[in-house]
Specification:
The chain has 10 helices and 6 strands, in the order βαααααβαβαβαβαβα. α6 links the parallel β2 and β3. The chain starts with a strand and ends with a helix. About 45% of the residues lie in helices and about 10% in strands. Bound molecules: 1,6-di-O-phosphono-beta-D-glucopyranose and magnesium ion (MG). Magnesium ion binds next to loops.
Length: about 220
């Protein structure tokens, strides 16, 4: 029986990917590192540190202090960019599904790699619709490790098998499956095809239909 749904944030409830991209692009330009939108696709759902390591490729060149400074700098750019986010930045279908789940007595958690997740859900105006927040501060091992989703399930008071994860990133689907949870992948099958159910987005998604697809 499904008792809880764990939502990823970026790419599922809202599209902060563009802001992450702009932040990394600015940093990469300042550092003279090659980077573009295509390279940014590789950073979907990836933690801040692992994103930076992918961008710099040759990490031997940088000290830990320099890595920390670059992560902080990118985050400053990102925080500036999300400053003006509002409820209009919710992706289509997200709010309706959250409300439908609540009405159906299903518990709701956020399972995001982001250390800015709390700020973003406040800006989106959905804090009161989320029972538990698992974010970039909750566990040590980032996705694709199952730790973040297991943390969310534990905080919800549920077993992993009672939880569904909604994710847009390959690393997130991998993490959900490793956690022993059901997975809904949003996006192209090349990216999220390992999920139990693949959908283009949350637009028009009804809980009872999704539940039937998951138990089929
Ligand atoms: P921060 P998600 C992820 O969010 C983003 O997709 C990824 O691009 C970002 O690097 C990561 O959060 C960490 O974010 O720098 O704010 O801690 O998809 O897990 O909600
Ligand atoms: Mg995501």
């Amino acid at each position: 029986d499904i008792r809880g749904v764990i939502f990823d944030l970026d790419g599922v409830l809202t599209d902060t990917a563009e802001y992450h991209y702009l932040g990394w692009q600015k940093l990469a330009d300042e550092e003279g590192l090659p980077f573009n939108r295509e390279a940014n696709e590789e950073l979907r759902g990836v933690s801040r540190r692992d994103s930076l390591l992918k961008i710099i490729a040759n990490r031997q060149q940088y000290s830990e202090t320099q890595l920390q400074e670059m992560m902080e700098r990118k985050n400053r750019y990102y925080v500036d960019l999300i400053h003006n986010m509002t409820a209009t930045d919710l992706l289509p279908g997200a709010l309706a599904l959250l409300d439908e789940l609540r009405a159906a007595g299903i518990k709701i958690a956020l399972g995001s790699a982001s250390k800015n997740a709390q700020t973003v859900i406040e800006k989106l105006g959905i804090s009161d619709r989320i029972d538990v927040i698992a974010d970039g501060y909750s566990v040590k091992q980032p996705k694709p490790a199952p730790d973040l989703f297991l943390f969310a399930a534990r905080e919800l008071g549920l077993e992993p098998q009672q939880c569904v994860v909604v994710e847009d990133a390959a690393a997130g689907i991998e993490a959900a499956l490793a956690a022993g949870m059901l997975a809904v992948g949003l996006g192209p099958t090349e990216r999220v095809g390992e999920a139990h159910v693949v959908l283009p987005s949350l637009a028009g998604v009804r809980w009872l239909e999704l539940r039937d697809k998951l138990s089929a």
